[in-house]
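Try this one yourself first.
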């Protein structure tokens, strides 16, 4: 989801639809429709995708050719946000084929490419944890190192939930083996190998698909509190189940909601507080 408008300079400003609503143009959802319909221009250039952030005291916004006059309250709220925001938190619904690393010598698309150019340039965000290229779902980007550490360190144990589609009909015996856990061997950069225990907080069958044409499949719900590299895929392979699709559907209390693959959501204070509470609660 990219916004090529020069108005999307920094989330330290105010959301375009919020500024329009505060100016009395209409309800925020109506303002969003006006923007996506191409009726709104910022500094002379049409804005058709969201999110878009503006500085009401600097940017010129017009609707159907008529300049919007912003009230003083909009200027004040934008200034206050700029003064108080020290960290940025972005929830991404990562599509398949996008890698989590922020730099790739092969030039593959990475999660930062999903951000508006201005945010990508100015915020210096980095992903919290990893999702491999074939996996999809929720990923948090932030410049808050303390929260990132807490969300990924094993001692805090913040739960991440996944939906996994695997080939075959999973048995109760296979699920019990996954719950008991196992040791996974991982090569290190110096050629040695390390062995570390892996286990699933919970694993249950959501649905079984009996299909003679496409082959039998099982959809699982998996919850982890500590993740190793490709842990779910490796554990399922050890019990004879091959992963066909893997999606992260929750990070602590955060879920995708109406966030579609490839889209992003700038988290507000309420969502960030929920994340912090999950850390403290664990």
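Now uncover the answer:
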């Amino acid at each position: 989801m990219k916004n090529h408008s020069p108005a999307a300079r920094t989330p330290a400003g105010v959301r375009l639809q919020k500024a329009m609503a505060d100016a009395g143009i209409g309800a925020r959802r109506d303002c969003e429709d006006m923007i996506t319909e191409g009726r709104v221009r910022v500094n002379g250039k049409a804005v058709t995708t969201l999110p878009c952030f503006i500085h009401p005291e600097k940017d010129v916004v017009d609707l159907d050719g008529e300049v919007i006059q912003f009230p003083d309250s909009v200027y004040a709220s934008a200034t206050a946000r700029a003064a108080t925001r020290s960290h940025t938190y972005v929830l991404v619904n990562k599509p398949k084929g996008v890698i989590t690393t922020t730099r790739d010598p092969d030039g593959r698309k990475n999660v930062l490419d999903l951000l508006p150019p201005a945010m990508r340039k100015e915020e210096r965000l980095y992903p919290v944890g990893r999702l491999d290229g074939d996996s999809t779902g929720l990923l948090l980007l932030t410049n808050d190192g303390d929260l990132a550490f807490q969300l990924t360190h094993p001692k805090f144990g913040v739960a991440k939930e996944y939906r996994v589609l695997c080939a075959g009909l999973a048995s109760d015996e296979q699920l019990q083996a996954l719950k008991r856990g196992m040791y996974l061997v991982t090569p290190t950069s110096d050629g040695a190998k390390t062995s570390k225990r892996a286990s699933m907080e919970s694993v249950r069958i959501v649905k079984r698909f009996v299909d003679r044409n496409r082959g039998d499949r099982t959809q699982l719900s998996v919850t982890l509190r500590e993740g190793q590299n490709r842990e779910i895929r490796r554990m399922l392979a050890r019990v004879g189940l091959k992963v066909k699709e893997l999606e992260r559907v929750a990070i602590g209390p955060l879920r995708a909601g109406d966030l579609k693959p490839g889209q992003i959501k700038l988290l507000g204070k309420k969502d960030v507080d929920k994340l912090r509470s999950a850390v403290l609660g664990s």
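Discussion: The chain has three domains: 14-84, 87-157+252-282, 159-251. The first strand starts at residue 14 and ends at 15.
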